[in-house]
Each structure stands twice: as structure tokens, then as C-alpha cells.
Design a protein that fits this description.
21% of the residues lie in helices and 34% in strands. The protein is of the alpha+beta class.
């Protein structure tokens, strides 16, 4: 409800929630199904974090291909993901990853969850200022977790702060 109220404020350009840069990720085991005459898999690890609809835009991370999460996907924790350029190069070299599937062991229990790639984002320094992140996946938020909220505000910051207090 807070995000919806903040989105209505004209002083606020965009609102998102999720794990923020330098706030931590986890490095989940990742399995990628490879297409071809003989079905194969690629295994590796990827940094993972949660990100709502408009997260990339709010934090200034360019979405290079595909699409953003929808409001419904963000609210439900849908099994879709936006991956970094590095993840696309590592797991689908020379291929378009949009529509492809991968699996993550989210809880490190051996139980794999299937995700569909819906977008590719620019590589960033999300976990370490000294280097571009290796493979990174942004997942639709888990509805059972409370996240920090991020705002992109206009030039009138005082009005944006007042809008936040009013929300």
C-alpha cells in the first residue's frame, strides 16, 4: 500500500523495493537447461537479489532487452527473473536468453525453483565497488519478506519528503 501511495505523488518520479546495492546478495547454485539434440545442463553460481517492478529504473540500472517485472509479478513473487549481461554471457553465450529457463536452489536445501528470463540488465557494481558483478539475477520479491523502499525524486526534494510523510 505504501508503494501505491508513493507512486501517486507527483513529486516522486518512481518507487521500488528490494535488496539495495551493497546491502547483500546471496550466491545461489544455478542450473541452466541447454537446448539441443542432446539435452544438457550448465551449472554455476549467480549472485541473486530481489527487485520489484520499476527497481532498475529507480536505481538507474538500464534494462537492455526484454521487459520489467509487472505489478502482479512483484506482488506475488512470480517465478520470473531479470539477469545481468554477465549472466547472459556465462549461461547462454551467443544466444538470446529471453524466454529461457534456469533453476536456483534458493534455500540451499537441494530443492530447485524454476525461473523464466524476462529481461537482461546492464552489468553493475552491486555487491562490490571495485568490480563489476559476475553473473547476477534479479528475482521478483518474495511476498513474505519486508524490503527497503527506494525513491527517485524530482528537483523539489522538500516536496518529495513531504509526500513521503503524507503517504
Amino acid at each position: 500500500r505504501l508503494v501505491s501511495r508513493l507512486e501517486e505523488a507527483p513529486e516522486i518520479k518512481s518507487v521500488a523495493y528490494g535488496r539495495g546495492p551493497m546491502m547483500g546478495t546471496w550466491t545461489s547454485p544455478m542450473t541452466v537447461k541447454k537446448a539441443g539434440a542432446v539435452e544438457g545442463v550448465a551449472r554455476g553460481r549467480a549472485l541473486a537479489s530481489y527487485a520489484s517492478r520499476d527497481y532498475l529504473n529507480t536505481l538507474g540500472i538500464p534494462l537492455l532487452r526484454g521487459r520489467d517485472f509487472t505489478r502482479q509479478e512483484s506482488a506475488a513473487g512470480a517465478p520470473v527473473a531479470i539477469i545481468s549481461e554477465a549472466a547472459a554471457r556465462q549461461f547462454w553465450p551467443g544466444e538470446d536468453p529471453i524466454g529461457r529457463h534456469f533453476q536456483l536452489d534458493l534455500r540451499f536445501t537441494g530443492k530447485l525453483t524454476d525461473f523464466e528470463v524476462i529481461g537482461v540488465a546492464k552489468d553493475v557494481r552491486f555487491t562490490n565497488l571495485t568490480r563489476i558483478d559476475p553473473a547476477h539475477v534479479y528475482l521478483a520479491p518474495d511476498p513474505a519478506i519486508t524490503y527497503p523502499v527506494f525513491l527517485n525524486v524530482g528537483l523539489n526534494q522538500a516536496a518529495a519528503i513531504a509526500a513521503v510523510w503524507k503517504a
